[in-house]
Design brief:
2 copies of one chain form a homodimer.
Chain A: H1 4-19, H2 23-39, H3 41-58, H4 62-68, H5 72-87, E1 95-100, E2 106-113, E3 116-121, H6 126-137, E4 141-145, H7 151-167, E5 175-177, H8 183-189, E6 198-202, H9 205-214, E7 227-231, H10 237-249, E8 258-264, H11 265-278, E9 283-286, H12 288-292, E10 304-306, E11 320-326, H13 329-339, E12 344-348, H14 352-361, E13 366-371, E14 388-390, E15 398-400, E16 406-417
Parallel strand pairs in A: 3-4, 3-6, 4-5, 7-8, 7-12, 8-11, 9-10, 9-11, 12-13
Antiparallel strand pairs in A: 1-2, 2-16, 14-15
Helix pairs in contact in A: 2-5, 2-7, 3-7, 5-6, 10-11
């Protein structure tokens, strides 16, 4: 029997102890975790193989199976990620916005942990370790609930985390795992508003909507990216082909992979055939103007399909790419405003004024100039790792790591000040 | 008929225009608003008198009536607050966390408005102007919904705001007001998750719980303060009496007014009689040890009551003060952890180590040393004004003003970078 009340109480107690723990003690536990991950790869890979087998039997899509697969190299990288978190500065206790008011009151803000986090995620067992290590380092307790398709992998990883906590005499309530795929438990957990300070759902739109609808805890949503690149008239077309290839094919199953390319009308006739030629193995959904750029019958219909009404509102998570011709920068930005999920959108251009205008006007979590959208990632952007990529506007936007797992308190020191 | 869908659409359009508006244009509208407030005091005061009359008829408590009363001086101060907001720097466009990554990617964050705000508030018609001016300055559109007890005042203030917008050719959708006390409208509004980016309820616990339970929009809650001061053994007792007098009596009806005084056991016998003597007109709820510090029968029972089970979990909002004797700093902090709403809590001490320990351990939005809790206020802490005082942990904590009404986007400029 899983007792959520006991879990959240133990998490709250652990959080109070973590909030005032020295950096050295937290880092020691993380180093222990990294070393245990290295020495237990076989156990984790065996557990993961069990999940992969079951996933095949359940008929999961190749994109989903790719997301839950762990490898020797991947596990080593995971341990390295934990060591990177050790190297990162401790955000807790940082003082900022220090000032002395005209009346002599000394005021500053000071970072403190959020408290108790709950993270509900689907597939991707590496999330278990990434989130646990960032939570520990930032002084938060965390309750994890992974998907049923990674139950074995998560159980193996969670046991390693608990071993690290125990051997460093850290409270075991600091990282807890709901070893069940019972959805009723999730519903109960997300309504425990005093017990949990932040809820992070990581998964599809269904999970996010479920959390938004039912949660009484502040929710951080994100991780759903319909990502755009606009190829401007002045773009370096060779570079554009490379960047689009990277955005679409380097890891198609993730949220920062490219979904839609918008092409300036004046270069469409040359660029679109070259684009299709450059993306072997990709299927395209083209708007009517883009279709006109292709010679009739030159490309099989398995590769080229006219874009349907939903195609520009779909996060592909696979080797499919939408292509649309636009009259220019303004129409490109209008399309992005209407269809982007506010995750990662960019412009490829050699025109500085157009780049500046795009950056000023497009309001996504990450706005790019002449780069692949694949960089929207905590590790890539120098945060060490990430707990999620926020596409909401409150609290944090884009990759969330240590600082984003903290809040602050105001500290006000007076000389017996009273308000007049 | 109030058409919420049309309101939110018009707010979204206005928000897009405000997001890229120059500071000069926003400041001009605010200056116009301040001048119109000065030239229309009679109209507002007449409307307010109507609300006060109705409040008396409805039998509202004196504390509530105090909260909704406007005066000539108060209105002039309100116009001055708007002029202060004009003087404040525009947060929109501010660049921070600029860095160049090892691979040469240029990364920074840039402040952008949140978008569309909804603020639901009870009494206090000055909120209408404070919130509208901070929203405009920070480039946000806002939908306001005041309480039925200030319907006339709010209508008069809203007309002045609309006049300012019109005369400066600003979109009228930038500030909208729900001219109705129909609660069903609130329920509909707070479920429009794509239409509104942040919901701020300002009022009692009932309103906050209603919003938390039903909202699909990210909610900022706050403004409920069970505020504590701990009088340490080493406190300057004369200063402590002045600070407590200020915290309790300067404006008892507001959230940062003092609710509970914790007194170190070793000074209780002297301090508690002096405390009671110094707070004429205040009624006390004393724990049993505090009661023992008083001579039997020396003070009438209308002033002194033994503290009941709920008294240390009550926000008084009136001239009532809880008093409890504690064994020392640790017990004081335990009491605060158990009973505080995380708003404003402080220590009065001459012992630096105790002050430091208190600041490190107590995790409230505002933590005080040797000052009145009455300073937890956007104006007092140098923010110009405030839209709310957050006691939640996500996004912002304590007084929320311009910066707290913004989010940021990541801007990533590459030199045709692709991810390896």
């Amino acid at each position: 029997m899983i007792d959520l009340l006991a879990m959240t109480r133990s998490a709250r107690q652990a959080a109070q102890s973590l909030a005032i723990m020295t950096r050295a003690r937290k880092d020691e536990a993380l180093m222990t975790l990294a070393n245990l991950l290295d020495s237990h790869t076989d156990a984790v890979l065996n557990a993961n193989a069990g999940d992969i087998d079951l996933a095949g039997e359940m008929g999961l899509s190749p994109a989903l199976i790719d997301r839950l697969r762990l490898t020797q190299t991947g596990l080593r990288a995971l341990a390295e990620d934990v060591r990177k978190v050790v190297q990162l500065p401790d955000p807790v206790g940082c003082v900022f916005d220090r000032k002395v008011l005209p009346n002599g009151l000394q005021v500053h803000k000071q970072r403190v942990p959020l408290g108790v986090l709950a993270v509900i995620y689907e597939s991707r067992p590496n999330v278990t370790v990434d989130v646990a290590s960032l939570a520990l380092k930032s002084g938060n307790a965390v309750i994890l609930r992974g998907g049923k398709e990674t139950l074995h992998s998560n159980r193996a990883l969670f046991e390693i985390i608990q071993q690290a906590l125990t051997s460093c005499e850290m409270p075991s309530g600091a990282v807890q795992w709901i070893d069940s795929s019972d959805r009723e438990l999730v519903l109960s957990l997300i309504q425990m508003s005093d017990a949990v300070d932040m809820l992070i759902p990581r998964g599809g739109a269904g999970l996010h909507n479920f959390c938004r609808e039912h949660s009484r805890i502040p929710v951080m949503t994100g991780g759903i990216g319909i990502c755009h690149l606009f190829v401007d008239q002045s773009a370096d077309q060779e570079a554009a082909l490379r960047i689009i290839h990277n955005g679409k094919t380097q890891r198609p199953s993730v949220c920062n992979a490219l979904d839609t390319v918008l092409v300036h009308r004046s270069i469409a006739a040359d660029f679109i055939p070259a684009l299709i030629d450059n993306l072997q193995g990709v299927a395209f959904r083209l708007d009517s103007t883009a279709l006109e750029c292709l010679q009739v019958g030159s490309i099989p219909s398995s590769i080229i399909t006219p874009a349907g009404p939903q195609d520009f509102d779909t996060e592909w998570l696979s080797l499919v790419l939408g292509v649309k011709v636009v009259a220019g920068l303004e129409e490109a930005m209008d399309h992005i405003r209407a269809h982007s999920t506010g995750h990662s959108d960019g412009i490829l251009t050699r025109d500085q004024a157009n780049a500046d205008h795009f950056v000023a006007q497009v309001d996504s979590a990450a706005v790019y100039v002449n780069a692949s959208t694949r960089f929207t990632d905590g590790g890539q952007l120098g945060l060490g790792a990430e707990v999620a990529i926020s596409t909401q506007r409150l609290h944090a936007r884009g990759p969330m790591a240590l600082e984003e797992l903290t809040t602050y308190k105001w500290v006000i020191v007076g000389n017996d000040h009273i308000r007049e």
